[in-house]
Amino acid sequence: MHTQILTSKYGAELISFKINGEEKIHQGEDCVDENGKVYWKKHWPVLFPTVGKCKKNQTIINGKTYETQIDGFIRDMEFEPVTKLDNFHSYIYKSNKKTIEKYPYEFSLTVTYRLDENKLTTIYKVINEGDTDMPFGIGSKPALKLDKNEADKENYYLEFEEEEKKIHFLYLVDGLIGTEYAKNIIVNDKQILLNEHTFDNDALIVKGFKSNKITLKNKKDGKPIFTVDYTGFPYLAIWSKAKSPFICIEPWMTTPDNANGSGVFRQKNDILLLPPKKEFECKYTVEFF
Question: What CATH number does domain 3-288 carry, 2.40.50.140, 2.70.98.10, 3.30.43.10, 3.40.50.11720?
Answer without folding.
Answer: 2.70.98.10
